[in-house]
Amino acid sequence: MREKRDQSSEPEVEGNLKPGGATLADVSKLAGVSSMTVSRALHKPEVVSKKTLEKVNWAVEQLGYIPNMMAGSLMSKRSRLVAVFVPTVAHSIFADMVQALMHSLARKGYHTIIGVTEYSDKQEQELVEAILGRRPDGIVLIGTQHSDLTRKRLQVSNVPVVEAWDMCDEPLDMLVGFSHEEVGRAIARHLLSKGFRRFAAISVADPRGIRRIGAMLDELAKHEIVDVPHLYLPIPATLSTGRDGLRQLLECNGRPEVVVCSSDTIAQGVLAEAASRGLKVPNDLAVMGFGDLSSASQVYPSLSSVRLDGQLVGETIAKVLLDRIAQKSSATRGLRVDTGFNIIDRESTRRS
Amino acid sequence: MREKRDQSSEPEVEGNLKPGGATLADVSKLAGVSSMTVSRALHKPEVVSKKTLEKVNWAVEQLGYIPNMMAGSLMSKRSRLVAVFVPTVAHSIFADMVQALMHSLARKGYHTIIGVTEYSDKQEQELVEAILGRRPDGIVLIGTQHSDLTRKRLQVSNVPVVEAWDMCDEPLDMLVGFSHEEVGRAIARHLLSKGFRRFAAISVADPRGIRRIGAMLDELAKHEIVDVPHLYLPIPATLSTGRDGLRQLLECNGRPEVVVCSSDTIAQGVLAEAASRGLKVPNDLAVMGFGDLSSASQVYPSLSSVRLDGQLVGETIAKVLLDRIAQKSSATRGLRVDTGFNIIDRESTRRS
DNA sequence: CTGTTAGCGCATTCAC
DNA sequence: GTGAATGCGCTAACAG
Fold first, then answer.
1. Is the pLDDT reported for residue B104 higher than 90?
2. Residue A297's closest chain B neighbor by CA?
3. Do B241 and B295 lie in a common domain?
């Protein structure tokens, strides 16, 4: 397809492009008003006369003007930028959460920078330090465990912070999460009530996953169920974590009635391995996952999942953060939101 | 835990914090040098004397100084920001790709803003327009189909662009992808060569997925295999897409020998449904996915996946983009990289 | 090796 | 309703 000049519109404007695009000054000259008026026409159209507004809009269109947010933010001290740090996004429930969060933020005109910490406090710290250079209007962190320097930097920077996905008594700032210990205990009680007695567990070496499985094992022990075979496999959690895990369990410990996984990704691997062995789920082998928190309920219909009741977690985080940014007060400092969780009873643990 | 003042270090500095943090001028005063020297000490330490460097570093530490990138970028015209637009990130191979891309970019000091287009050209356009306000150093788009305004904006803005995940003759700028038609044909030939004759297919209404499945059906037709049952289900692709799809296929069309899915997520749903029906994979039912492109090969060991040979796709995109940004020439304009793909023969299609 | 001058592009603050 | 002056925090380009 050959380039063809459009002769009817924008006769020589396209050729006169400055590197970096047109500026407010360019627009103001073309429109025959001051640059201040252009700025107002763009951000507060209601305060400008209709005629000027038209002239400005015309000039903006002619020049293809796009405001330079860096310059604007430098003056206004609002970057409309939120930074989110997650341990991982691939094969992870965090992808759902981040997507919901980005969606909510985008609707309010905020852009999202993502940092992947790979479950490392040190990487988190480096990413936080780097991102503070962009003066984000808000920061979201997964978990409540952070390096001392991270904590100090964040406190000093005075940026609104939401810690998510966990619960603690003294959050850095705001907190939206739930107790992983309670999740573990709830899983145990749920499965016990359904008559399961021979358990097994597969987790990756993710601190919160380990805590969930640990709490479950403790609860089981209270019901005289001990020596539950359990595996802690290396992160990241992938399908093969579940496949290898089930294979290993079957070889070394015989077949359990139900295998509890620290994440839905692992559970999917278990299901895949079950399919390859012709094990019928849930009668030959029941499977319990974890996740589904920020997704619609139809996302993991094969698994019994723990999920948030009502609003998506990502949406809740966005709301809390934006409320705080908007009122510019510290009214919500120390705010703690326990999202709670549900146990959804799905096919994979529904015995006939 | 009570806050306790550390009396030995940073005596009164912490109290004197300006809102927004210390500035270059603050550091230069404390260090007793000019602000320019501080700037150099931070970005080009080798060009500053050792003594000055020490003074500057000391002052930086005292003040907890973090450079304001907005101001820096405004002058230098380099934002060290890359924007990536993907149709979705939840339950998607794009999450892998984006993670690999972010990883490579982060190593070179670039931050990544993600925009989710939800397979909508209109949303892509709005996101691109908005992000151009941040003057990103590079933009990555999925696919080669974009609205006219998007194309024009990008061309005029002169930002390096990589279109990924598809192939075409005249890319906007640079291109890193593969042919979805070739993938579809290769899948057909591969499965035929393994002796499969009774096919079925499940896809979501994603343009590229449909093209893959369409090309596969065409190739099968050339081998006298026609009337292949196939479903096009609504996006987004989730586990239940696969579960519902298989259920529907079995009810209406009987059991195929192999079901081809337009993504690994769907294939995982099919495996889950197979497990719930006690169908043994691959003998009762073989499953073919698509994905695994930017992940290590062990990620989807249950599926026969199409994957990139060698380097991760996200890494390749980062490399192409950073090369272009670095040399600041247009030498690589029009660059087209065909990543190709592999068919990995895995358990789920390996018949005994 | 270091300092000075200038200005990036915009919004705040005040005049009118 | 509109405009002029000022400066956000930093770096490019020079001079010394």
1. yes
2. B240
3. yes
Look up residue B90 and give its DSSP letter.
T
Indicate if CB(A35) is under 7 A from strand C: yes
Which nt is closest to the CA of A50, judged by C1'? D1
pTM of the model: 0.90
Residue A24 CB closer than 7 angstroms to strand C? yes
Compute the average pLDDT of residues B209-227: 96
Does the CB of B68 fall within 7 Å of any strand D atom? yes
Least Cα distance to B134 among A238, A113, A87 occurs for: A113
CATH code, domain carrying B69:
1.10.260.40
The token pair at A258 is 């139900």
| pLDDT tens string A235-257 | 889 888 999 999 999 999 999 99
Nearest-CA distance B224 → chain A (Å): 30
Q: Are strands B306-307 and B342-343 parallel, antiparallel or unpaired?
A: antiparallel
Closest CA to B139 of B346, B300, B317, B340: B317
Q: Residue A113 and residue B115: Cβ atoms within 8 Å?
A: no
Q: Is the CB of B75 under 7 A from strand D?
A: yes
Q: Please name which of A91, A93, A269 lies closest in space to residue B301, comparing C-alpha atoms.
A: A269
Helix (H) or strand (E) holding B142: strand B138-142
Structural domain includes residue B347: no
Asked if residues A245 and A231 have their Cβ atoms less than 8 Å apart, the reply is yes
Shared-domain flag, residues A126 and A141: yes
Sign of torsion, CA B287 B245 A202 A254? negative
pLDDT, tens digit, 9 for 90 and up, residues A104-142: 999 999 999 999 999 999 999 999 999 999 999 999 999
Same domain, B100 and B201: no
A37 CA, C15 C1': separation in Å?
15
The C1' atom of D7 and the CA atom of A336 lie apart, in whole Å, by 39
Residue A311 identity (one-letter amino acid): Q
Distance from residue A288 (CA) to nucleotide D10 (C1'), in Å?
54
DSSP-derived letter for residue B139 is E
Identify the CATH number of the domain in which residue B206 sits. 3.40.50.2300
Separation CA A301–CA A127 (nearest Å): 36
Lowest-pLDDT choice from A122-126, A251-255, A302-306, B20-24 = A302-306
Give the C-alpha separation, B191 to B330, whole Å: 43
Smallest Cα distance from A283 to chain B, Å: 9
| Domain interval for residue A213 | 180-307
Classify residue A349: in a domain, yes or no: no
Residues A57 and A161 in one domain: no
Cβ–Cβ of B20/A135 closer than 8 Å?
A: yes
Closest Cα in chain B to A83: B113
Token pair listed for A238: 């992938």
